[in-house]
Design goal:
By secondary structure, the chain is mainly α. The protein has 14 helices and no strands. Helix 11 (about 240-260) runs parallel beside helix 13. The termini are far apart.
């Protein structure tokens, strides 16, 4: 089965991108950040915390489901990469051909973008981008029109996918598979979460405000299960790096499920005074998870704690207020 995707899977795209002007490649190296995992989870977390009823009937349920969709997407990528275990294009291995006109500070940044290790199929950026922007387009259904949301999401996802080919860290088939996988993950996540638009027999009123019916827990749990399978495949193949990535997926899925259990789902936007320190704490936990990647226990614990904190944060202001009232009453 693994022979369906081979190491030599290019269709001539590398020859084409080699002919592109250097400034085009540099521009696409910047575009690829739009689907970096840190950017996507940061974007989804901030939107989840601050979104209002102008963009979704139930913004907290919509935001948590979007996070669950991307968590499922990365779990699927981890399983696919461990299963097929095919390399990236030779250009991703280096040395990097850094344009001589780039300033020294940007030279290091550019080299970091165009060099990448690990397996190449499917593309994590293409999958994550399609899942994140697709989920946001469907879930934040009061912003713009449906046509504009889907068009914008599609343009960003395709631009990110193209950037991965232009900077030669993926073949065309890798990103096409990623785009397709991301789309499937979005539909599957929304079905699992109970979105009436993807469930038969729903009423017209339910379809009018679909986010009020969402429960992201099943999708978070599925992400954990798929990540567990990815860890097993990676371990059997002797791919230590992929085992760690799959472990992070397990912790993210379980952390999301636990965090949502602490949230009723109808909370107001998180106050800035609460969100700023929370962002610093969760950011430190994410950095710690990757900094101590050689210790799988520390990595999993830090990741799970960060995700629980991100997902449960909307409930914190009400809990603080309730505790203050309770203490005042006892006083």
């Amino acid at each position: 089965m693994t022979r369906l995707v081979t190491a030599d899977r290019g269709v001539g795209e590398i020859v084409l991108v080699d002919a592109l002007p250097e400034f085009v490649v540099v521009a696409f190296a910047a575009v690829t950040h739009l689907a970096d995992p840190w950017f996507l989870f940061g974007l989804l977390a901030v939107t989840y915390w601050f979104a209002g009823h102008r963009i979704a009937a139930s913004p907290r349920r919509a935001g948590a489901t979007a996070i669950a969709a991307v968590t499922c997407a990365y779990a699927a990528v981890a399983l696919g990469k461990a299963w097929f275990a095919v390399p990236r294009p030779p250009g991703a291995m280096g040395p990097a051909a850094v344009p001589t006109w780039l300033p020294g500070l940007l030279s290091g940044w550019y080299e970091a973008q165009v060099l990448s290790d690990g397996f190449g199929f499917p593309s994590g950026h293409a999958t994550g981008g399609a899942a994140a922007y697709g989920a946001m387009a469907l879930l934040y259904d009061r912003a713009w029109t449906e046509r504009k949301r889907i068009l914008a999401a599609g343009l960003v996802a395709v631009a990110v996918a193209a950037s991965r080919v232009v900077i030669e860290v993926h073949y065309l088939v890798d990103v096409l598979a990623g785009l397709g996988l991301g789309g499937v993950v979005v539909v599957g996540t929304l079905w699992l979460a109970g979105d009436p638009r993807f469930r038969g027999g729903s009423t017209r009123s339910a379809r009018a405000d679909p986010t009020t019916a969402l429960d992201p827990v099943p999708a978070f749990l599925l992400a954990g299960v798929v990540s567990f399978a990815a860890a097993g495949v990676a371990f059997a193949g002797g791919h230590a790096g992929e085992v760690v990535e799959a472990g992070i997926g397990i912790a993210t899925g379980l952390g999301g499920a636990v965090g949502w259990r602490l949230v009723p789902g109808d909370e107001s936007a998180v106050p800035v005074r609460v969100a700023v320190p929370a962002l610093a704490v969760t950011g430190a936990l994410w950095v710690g998870a990757y900094a101590f990647a050689d210790s799988i226990v520390v990595t999993l614990a830090a990741t799970a704690a960060a995700v629980v904190a991100v997902v449960a944060l909307p409930a914190l202001p009400d809990r603080i207020a309730g505790a203050a009232v309770s203490n005042g009453g006892h006083g």
